[in-house]
Amino acid sequence: MFETYWDPVWLTLKLATTTTVLLLLIGTPIAWWLARTRHWLRQPIAAVVALPLVLPPTVLGFYLLLVMGPEGWVGQMTQSLGIGLLPFTFEGLVVASVIYSLPFTVQPLQNAFEAVGEGFMEVASTLRAAPWDRFLFVAVPLARNGFLTAAVLTFAHTIGEFGVILMIGGNIPGETKVLSVAIYDHVESLEYTEAHWLSAGMVVFSFVVLVTLYALNGKARSGAIR
Amino acid sequence: MTASNTIRARFQCTFPGFGLDVDLTLPGTGITGLFGHSGCGKTTLLRCMAGLQGASGTMTVLGEPWQTETFIRPVHKRPLAYVFQETHLFPHLSVRKNLEFGYRRIPAGNRQIGFDDAVRWLGLESHLDRMPVGLSGGERQRVAIARALLTSPRLLLMDEPLSALDLNSKQEILPYLERLHDTLAIPIIYVSHSTEEVARLADHIVMMTEGRVVAQGPLRETLAGIDNPFRVQDDAGALLEGQIIDLDEYWHLALFRFDGGQLWLRCDHRVKPGDQVRVRVLARDVSLALTEHSDQSIQNLVPAVIDQIDPDVAPGISLVRLLAGTTPLLSRLTSRAVAQLGLEPGMNVWMQVKSVALVA
């Protein structure tokens, strides 16, 4: 009994952490590019990044299943690389979560980078800082709040993921059975007590995350005026 | 001027509704004032010089190419410093860390300006551990100037460093700028729309209108040039350099001597005998007489020779260029007065100077 409680919790935390770390690495250059470019591809790319916000998770899951399946091009590629197929594995969930939560990383970061503005970067370049130097020592510290918001939102959003996971991950204990799926399972089998424990836990967790986020943002804002 | 001690800038670029087209050779020492109304392209030109703004052209500083037809050196590899109108102090760094930002990025062997020297010159000793948000406008600009100097630049570019400041902060900064001019050998290009600032600080001046250079040269000659395109303004006038030689405490006057004569100024407590000062005489404050009258209210009478007479752009007005010794001055008269007095180039006249302003 104890095992079945903690397996999904542990798996969910592992998925959310992996996704958040990967997304910060992938999302930062995308957000940086979107915040500064005047390229005509800017709007189309911004729209692609935002797609997961509006699409039903089932649509996303359906296409991911096709693309990563034995007939899909990603599936063919992973098979020829000897990795096998991604659907119904933890790695498959990570790929899906990264795509699903992309806007929650990119948008706060993009806003933060836009707020840094060109002025500070120009000053840094006149003070002999090369592009990487400017990015690391001026843009990143000034966009610190954006990184915090992006990380917290991505983490929380991945934990709340359900539709995509059900579509491409199914319900394999210890491999793809995350919290939201476990709750669904319990309800299906009329195990309301177990469903209550997990659901109430999620409510408390989400509340704590959001309160922390707002508190941190508020503190940073008043810090700027101090 | 040879290539190794000049700054050569040639730029062309077009934007919607605005074009820049300049070809300048500037002295490699002293302060060059880049002067003109807002929108004339002076800031754009400065940004082109720094490499912050892309433009086709060439830029050579003291013999070192910064931009040629085929190559553009990135901004962070140019030995320049730039002081922006908005100071852009890094808000996440203390004053000390702001100052160290550029300083630590140049090799120790290339540092010609010491950290403590810059801090002392700009009076920042007691502010080092403060954060930028707590500083006043004047203090922020002093930090920005020190931060720029600490990169030991070969060229210092300043974009209206005083325009965002109130009058008190301006008065606070100006002495520091004057001291830089006297202590450092670094050439400075100083963008401003204020005649006062340029007159007080600059040695050389470039006047711009609509993206083009319309006049340039040593400050004194250029401001008093009869072909100066700014003569239609009410503030057309000449700039005199000289020394305070006497004070009249009772009448609150100071006697100013320049190459070509003497003038009484209304004195405030800032000047004392021996001070080198700059004085501005506006063309509208100079009238001319054929003989030396003393039965009138105007105290300042200076003999001069008429050099040139041109019609002003305003109808019925003439602009007369005079030489007192070697010093050029301007007088703005009605054309009828010029005709009735029979003024002609080469005539000896008396200038009656109604008002003289100490440039400060």
Number of strands of chain A: 0
The total tally of domains of chain A equals: 1
- Gap from first CA to last CA of chain B: 31 Å
Tell me, briefly, the overall form of chain B. globular
CATH uppermost class of the largest domain in chain B: Alpha Beta
How would you name the CATH homologous superfamily of chain A? MetI-like
Helix content of chain A: over 70%
Order of helices and strands of chain B: EEEHEEEHHHEHEHEEHEEEEEEEEHEE
The number of distinct β-strands of chain B equals 20
Number of helices, where a helix is a run of at least 4 consecutive DSSP H or I residues of chain B:
8
Regarding quaternary structure, what we see is heterodimer
Pfam families (chain B): ABC_tran (PF00005), TOBE (PF03459)
Domain ABC transporter (chain B): 1-235
Protein name (chain B): Molybdenum ABC transporter ATP-binding protein
Keywords (chain B): ATP-binding, Cell inner membrane, Cell membrane, Membrane, Molybdenum, Nucleotide-binding, Translocase, Transport
